[in-house]
Amino acid sequence: MTKSEEMNSDQQMQHSSTELPPSPAETLDEISLLLSQLLASSLSIKSFTSRWQVLRSKLSTIKCLISEVSDSPHWSENALLPMLLPNLLSTLLRVKTLCLHCSDPAFVPGKLLMQSDLDMAAGWLSNLINQLDVLCRSGVLRKSTAIVLSHPSSTSIREDLVLFVRDLFTRLQIGGVEFKMKALESLVQLLTDDEKSATVVAQEGNIGCLINLMDSNADHPIREQAVIAVSMLVSDCDLACKCVFEEGGLGPLLRMLDSESLAVKERAAMAVECITSARENAWAISAYGGVPALIDLCKSMSVSAQIHGVGAIRNVSVNEDVRIALAQEGVIPVLLQLLISGKASAQNKAANCLAIMASSGEYYCDLLLNENALQILLRFLLHESSNSDTSGYVLQAIYSLSTFDDLTSKHLGSSSNFIIKLADLIKHGNLMTQYTSASLLANLEISDRDKREISGCMYGLVKLMDSSKPDGMQEIAANALVSLLTAKSNRERFVRDEKSLMKLSQMLDPENDLVSKKFPVAVVSAIMAGWWSKGRRKMLVAAGVNAHLQRLSEMEIVGAKKALQRLSGSRLKKIFTRFQSCLPGYEGVNGGGV
Question: Where is the DUF7032 domain (predicted)?
Fold first, then answer.
């Protein structure tokens, strides 16, 4: 080579190195031309005809999509096309090489190798078709980039929000790492700024794409952002929660619980708790092998992870199969430890789960008692300052244990501190706590001394008898009150309490149809049990009890006739009293009568 030729060669290389890459418009024109050539030349290929038929079909689809792109008014503004078009051109050039080889009679490739190359080409084209289709269907090519990329506010119209969401998911599906990361950050920002946007994301976005990004093979920052986005979606929107579950998102989220990143672990735990809040999703925890992961989460040093972990366990414990798996994996001591030392929210959820376990049968009650659960529950109820809901769950667990184990029932009945606590909860607890407390008072064997000690809760029980909800409250309250009235001094105290007496009379009134009459009638019978004074009888009569009983007796209300006879005094008793008064030395009983 002469010196002149070397200089020309150097100039050409220098020129090619400084030459700008073709514009998207030029690349698009080259792609369109190449597609037309390939579709025409591939028709004459005689070898591997079935495979080339598949390739021609895909090339034809790409040609249609490219036409749609070029017809879109703002396609040149889209940031994804400068990446997508060169990839498409490069793939088409490879297909062109294959076309030339298969058209050349002199070219003799290995048959299996060529089949493999053609199959790979079909896969490349399918991937490109999917990317182009996503881009075209998103609608972003028909809008100016300035409009599409404007971050919507809470006051934006729905059309703008839909377009923004579609653009984000287009970038997530076909963009590179940088595009995906920026799209995820924008999605998280959108969900942070406007919770209502979660519904639009669920309706217009590709939830399956987000779930794929949580896969362990994904880039770590992308995976972390995807978990954050999913956790925000499921916590903001029931529809999104349903979509994530149906797209198989629970499995990747459970795997994320083992992440070394605390932020990922906590976000995944939040999402799992939200998804399992739907009872119909509970079974999937066992199907994905997630029970051990949830139990380990409750042992985490992260308070947030603990709270969401025990919340998810609480949610899924309603399913019998999952409940058995939880028990077999040792969840009960973990729950008891959270009740002892967890934060208030974790304590509440742990207590709820323990109540569910205890109410599920003898097997679970035995497990609880073997773990010293009764003492832990009693200690919490009597000594811990907790919210009423948590106390209610603890009390429900104690009640269930008492119904399945006689020794537990006897122990509770003999605990004065516990009985006094029940009386306090009847006076100051919420409705469900009052219900459970009354149930325990009605069923436990309590000493007369303790009954006298808690006589101050009798008016509370009378008020509960007047409550229509929950179902069974009237009967439970009446039974508890009747139990307390077996102590003589409590009967005396009851009739001296004007509020209790008037409330009882109102419930006996036949015009009051809110209360089943057999319950207040049973209370009247309990008041009149044993020896009692004319003074008490006068108080009941003065309160209108006698008149109400007469009407109830005529209505044949169970127990009303007997109570009326007891209150009025039978004719035989009157004759006997008069006969006694005629006997020498008879002075009667102080206060008179029997």
Answer: 32-140
> How far is 39 from 584, CA to CA, in rounded Å?
133
Residue pair 233/198 in contact by the 8 Å Cβ criterion? yes
Q: Is the peptide bond before 470 cis (omega within 30 degrees of 0)?
A: yes
Token pair of 108, please?
């003799």
Cα–Cα dist 478/465, whole Å: 6
Tell me the per-residue pLDDT of 506-528, one tens digit each, with 9 for 90 and over: 998 888 888 888 999 999 889 88
Return d(Cα 183, Cα 191) in angstroms, integer.
12
Flag residues of the chain having pLDDT under 50: 1-17, 146-148, 570-572, 574-576, 579, 586-594
Cis peptide before 584 (omega within 30 of 0): no
Domain residue limits, the chain = 25-104+114-142, 145-487
Task: Report how far residue 3's alpha carbon sits from residue 274's, in angstroms, rounded to the nearest whole number.
Answer: 76
* DSSP three-state, residue 256: helix
Yes or no: say if 61 and 123 are a contact pair by the CB < 8 Å rule. no
Q: Where are the beta strands (DSSP E) in 423-465?
A: none
The CATH number of 145-487, from 3.40.50.2000, 1.10.287.1080, 1.10.3720.10, 1.25.10.10, is 1.25.10.10
Rg (CA), the chain: 40
User: What is d(CA 439, CA 422) in angstroms, rounded to the nearest whole number?
Assistant: 10
Which three-class secondary structure state does DSSP give residue 514? coil
Angle at 141 between CA 140 and CA 142, to 5 degrees: 90
Residue 581: its pLDDT value, please? Answer: 52
pLDDT of residue 591: 39
CA–CA separation, 584 and 238 (whole Å):
86
List own/partner pairs for 385-392 with CB under 8 A and 24 or more apart: 386/344, 386/347, 387/344, 387/348, 388/429, 388/430, 388/433, 389/348, 389/430, 390/344, 390/347, 390/348, 390/351, 391/425, 391/429, 391/433, 392/429, 392/430, 392/432, 392/433, 392/436
Please identify which residue in the block is written with the tokens 């509370």. Answer: 460
Q: Could you tell me the two tokens for 148?
A: 């599409």
What's the CA gap between 537 and 364, in Å, rounded?
A: 50
CA atoms within 13 A on the CB side of 131: 18
Q: Report pLDDT digits (tens) over 38-81.
A: 988 888 888 888 899 999 899 988 888 888 787 776 676 677 78
Q: What is the Cα–Cα distance from 148 to 162, expressed in whole angstroms? A: 10
Q: Which segments of 45-146 are extended strands (E)?
A: none
Task: Return the ∠ at Cα 13 (arms to 8 and 15), rounded to 5°.
Answer: 90
Do residues 332 and 351 lie in contact, with contact meaning Cβ atoms separated by under 8 Å? no
H helices within 448-508, ranges in order?
Answer: 448-453, 458-465, 473-484, 488-496, 498-508
| Among 197, 176, 188, 151, CA closest to 82 | 176
Residue with tokens 């808690």: 454
**Closest C-alpha to 335, from 320, 321, 364, 363:** 364
Which phi and psi (to 5°) does residue 103 adopt? Answer: -85, -15
| C-alpha to C-alpha distance for 427 and 434, rounded to whole angstroms | 8
Question: Distances from the Cα of 487 to the Cαs of 120, 490, 491, in angstroms?
Answer: 90, 5, 7
CA atoms within 13 A on the CB side of 318: 12
Is 103 strand, coil or helix? helix
Structure token pair of residue 14 = 């220098």
The two structure tokens encoding residue 445? 């064997």
Residues 310 and 333: their CA atoms lie apart, in Å, by 13
